[in-house]
Amino acid sequence: MTEARGSTGLHGTTHAWHAPGTPCWVSLMVHGMAATQDFYRALFGWEFRPGPQPLGPYVRALLNGYEVAGIGQLPPDRHLPIAWTPYLGSDDVDTTAEQVRSCGGTVGVGPLDAAEAGRLAIASDPMGAVFGIWQAAEHLGTGLTGVPGTPVWNELLTYDTASVAKFYQTVFGYEEEPVVSPDFDYLTLHIEGRPVAGIHGVGNCLPRDRGAHWMTYFQVEDTDRTAERVTELGGHVVRTTCNTALGRMVTVADPEGATFSVVSRLD
């Protein structure tokens, strides 16, 4: 089945449904929800409204009236890494969770219902990178892409692609397209012929305090100006600006330390 997409062009692409295996949502769990909302409101122009709260306070970020991301409240006694987590679509989260376990991964949360929104699980691959699994009901996932302030790409940073590629292929049915290069270990993951995510093997360049992890990229108008704005708002630059195949990119962190990348198109 082909992913259902709506209008495209200057106002972006709207999404009515996400194919299984496609990154369909990104969510951030933090300690200071009010301050975090202020940061992303100022950075991306997001507005917020309450979302389902089976695990505690949660809001959905909206841009132009479309839901694009979620922010939740961590319990005070939970000292987990503050990180953006992509959710990968599934028609049956319970079956996908069993596949994760049988392929050497771990299911840390769920599967459980998120009120009427859908059903979810939080899992990690054999190298420890955390991701979510989402089975949509009333909440279909990211409703808008292709405009500044929306997710544009998700990429797994891991030790090497060979250690986890089979896991993701088996669990989510990805087709893989490797980059043929002796010094660049990279795979693009495809669903129905369309690139949806990447796996980048970076070896010992992984941060010691975090290990393998997923990175979410958000589209912006001007990468350099956005990096300056992050600093003005209390965040910081993690890796300096550079030009990539996606565009001009910089990796930054918000005031609670959640890292993400922003990218703008090259002229």
UniProtKB/TrEMBL annotation:
PANTHER family: CONSERVED PROTEIN, GLYOXALASE-RELATED. Pfam families: Glyoxalase_6. Residues 22-136, 150-265 form the VOC domain. Gene3D superfamilies: 2,3-Dihydroxybiphenyl 1,2-Dioxygenase, domain 1. PROSITE patterns: VOC (PS51819). This is VOC family protein.
